[in-house]
Structures are given as structure tokens and as C-alpha cells.
Design goal:
mainly alpha, about 70% helix, globular
Length: about 375
């Protein structure tokens, strides 16, 4: 494939930013009623997960209450359906939201904006716009050739994976709204700050020459006219695609979390990831960068670490480094960025994540 063809190449991971055509259908009253009934049933089942997990662990399986094995099994049986139910509901909702924000529309919104406004707007749009590591190159090319400033482009590319909507809702479900709000706010600040710094450094010459020589196409993809029935189908399609792809990571993450919950002694994590351990934040970032995981798989591990005494700032820094500075994304971005700009990108984002970790370890 020629380099110039990368801008329109389909995403090999299956998260293609050009959805399949959907036949428009009217959204009937009966369909809406069935949807409301399904949502009500979801909440009823969700409320029964904890007592059911407790019954299965200590009643049906006969494990001893308070034992390490019993704690691990109860954690796994409760968190597995809980996380999968939350994940399904969130992906469905986000699939509908994303039908309003195509990459082409996002590019059009950001083009021509001042840098100050653009950094904030790009970071916010990154939360809801379809993005994965595979789409980093075509999105980057599309933004640069549309005249979007380099710093604004990086604010988007940082926010899109870092402030992950799946992680946001899972954090809310597992750890409460305060932790979810901290994650959202600090993630946006890191994206805005890093994009602003990169924009001030004037590193446009470190974008690969072939990208700088490309001209903006001028005409984007034709705007799709979608009915609510079409958008509901987009939500269902997102569930079929994304949940089917990430569930092994989710189960693996919950299994790791269950082991930590059942077998790691209370306070153990406080000794190696606590507030008083100054080196815990940079070590967490260094461990997180080369890991290949997704937000859905890492959140249950974060949940278990916090239960065992790890500091909130340290685990947030670990989580952000895993999903914002993943090694596969850096390898893909090398196609369009020179090594010096990649190094600056990693350094600035890592510095922002370190600041978040130390700040919350100091304040909370």
C-alpha cells in the first residue's frame, strides 16, 4: 500500500470509521416500548448480581466466608457479569452518540479554529469520536492536511484513547462518580496541556515529509442522513463488534483482580504503591507504557489495587499510561512522525501523567 493511501485505508482491527450502510427504518412506538422494557429488565438483573454471587460462592459452592479462595471467587462471580453488563450498555449508548460525530465531521469542526479554542475542543471531541490505534495514522493525516494545528491534532490524539468512555462508566460503576470525575477531568487536562506544549515547540518539520506534501482533499465524505432506527442499529453493531473483541481482556482483568482481592494481604499495595512511596508513580508509568491492554481490561485490576491500599494517584497514572501511551500506537504513529516528535509526545504526556499521580497522592 502506498503511503498516500493510508488516509483512506480501512482499519484492520475491525473498528472501521466508515460504518456499513444501514437501511433506514421508521422507529415505531412498539420498538421504543420494547427498548424501555429491556432497560428496566437490565436494572433489575444488575441489582441482583451481588446477592447472587454471594449465594453461589458461599451457598452453592460451600466456600468458607472470609477465606482467600472464597473472597476471590465471590469477587470474580460478581464483577464478571457486572462489568460485562455495564460494558454492553455503555458501548450501545456510545455507538449511538458516535453516529453524530464522524471523523470527517470532527475534522471539519476543528479546521480553522484558533489554537487556544482548538486544544480544548479537540480534547472534548476525542472522547466521543471513533478512534483506535489503527486509525491514528489516517486521522492524523486528515487533520494535518485540513490545516488543523499540530498541537490541536495531538490534543485530539491524546484525549481519544486516554479519556475512554468505557473506562469512564466502568470506573463509575466500580468505584463511584468521584473517581470517574477525577479520571475525566485530569485526562482532559493532560490532553489539553500536552497539545498546547507541543504546539508551542513548533515541531511541524518533524512530521514526515510525505505527509506535509499532501494537499487537503477539500471534499470529505458525503454527510449521512440517519434516522433514529439507523442510530439504534449503529449502537447494536457497536455492541456486536466491540464487546465480542474485548471480552477476553475483561475476563482476564477480572481474574487478575480477583486474585489480588483474595490473596494479596491487606495493606501490601500501600507499601509499594502508597502515597509515601515517592518512586511508585514513575514506576507505574514505566510499567504501563509497554503493556498492551484496553480500558475494559485494566479497570478491574485498578479496582482490586485500590481495595488493597494502593494510592489513587498511582493507579490513575498506571491506567493512563497503559491506554494513552501504548506501544502499538507509537509504532503506528512512526509512519507519520519522526522519532524526535514521537519522543517529545511521549515525554510531554508522561510528564502530565506523573503530575496527575503526584497531585492526587498529595491531595487525597
Amino acid at each position: 500500500m502506498e503511503r498516500s493511501e493510508l488516509a483512506n485505508a480501512p482499519c484492520p482491527c475491525g473498528n472501521d470509521n466508515t460504518p456499513n450502510a444501514v437501511v433506514a427504518q421508521p422507529w415505531s412506538f412498539l420498538q421504543a416500548l420494547l427498548g424501555i422494557a429491556g432497560l428496566a429488565a437490565w436494572f433489575v438483573v444488575y441489582r441482583q448480581l451481588e446477592p447472587m454471587a454471594t449465594y453461589l460462592t458461599y451457598g452453592l459452592f460451600g466456600l468458607t466466608a472470609g477465606s482467600r479462595l472464597g473472597g476471590a471467587v465471590q469477587f470474580f462471580l460478581y464483577d464478571s457479569p457486572k462489568v460485562m453488563m455495564l460494558l454492553t450498555l455503555v458501548v450501545f449508548g456510545v455507538g449511538i452518540i458516535r453516529s453524530f460525530f464522524t471523523p470527517e465531521k470532527t475534522r471539519a469542526i476543528l479546521a480553522g479554529k484558533s489554537e487556544a479554542v482548538g486544544n480544548v475542543l479537540a480534547a472534548c471531541l476525542g472522547i466521543v469520536t471513533p478512534f483506535c490505534s489503527c486509525s491514528a495514522v489516517p486521522l492524523f493525516i486528515g487533520f494535518v492536511t485540513a490545516g488543523v494545528p499540530l498541537g490541536v491534532t495531538f490534543s485530539f490524539l491524546i484525549s481519544a484513547p486516554m479519556v475512554n468512555e468505557v473506562a469512564l462508566v466502568l470506573l463509575y460503576g466500580l468505584l463511584g462518580w468521584r473517581v470517574a470525575a477525577l479520571y475525566l477531568g485530569t485526562g482532559l487536562l493532560v490532553a489539553i496541556f500536552a497539545g498546547w506544549v507541543i504546539g508551542r515547540l513548533g515541531m511541524e518539520r518533524h512530521v514526515e515529509l510525505w505527509v506535509r506534501q499532501m494537499l487537503a482533499s477539500g471534499a470529505g465524505m458525503p454527510e449521512e442522513r440517519l434516522s433514529w432506527a439507523d442510530r439504534i442499529e449503529r449502537g447494536k453493531g457497536a455492541v456486536r463488534e466491540i464487546v465480542a473483541k474485548v471480552w477476553p481482556y475483561v475476563i482476564a482483568g477480572i481474574a487478575i483482580g480477583a486474585f489480588i482481592h483474595g490473596y494479596v494481604p491487606e495493606g501490601f499495595m500501600a507499601r509499594i504503591m502508597g502515597k509515601s512511596v515517592w518512586w511508585s508513580v514513575p514506576v507505574a508509568v514505566l510499567i504501563g507504557v509497554p503493556m498492551y491492554s484496553n480500558a475494559a481490561g485494566i479497570v478491574p485490576v485498578i479496582h482490586a489495587l485500590l481495595e488493597k491500599g494502593a494510592a489513587l494517584g498511582t493507579v490513575l497514572a498506571f491506567m493512563m499510561s497503559v491506554i494513552a501511551l501504548s506501544l502499538p500506537e507509537l509504532v503506528i504513529l512512526r509512519k507519520v512522525l519522526m522519532p524526535r516528535l514521537i519522543a517529545v509526545f511521549v515525554g510531554v504526556v508522561a510528564a502530565g501523567i506523573l503530575l496527575v499521580g503526584y497531585l492526587f497522592n498529595t491531595m487525597l
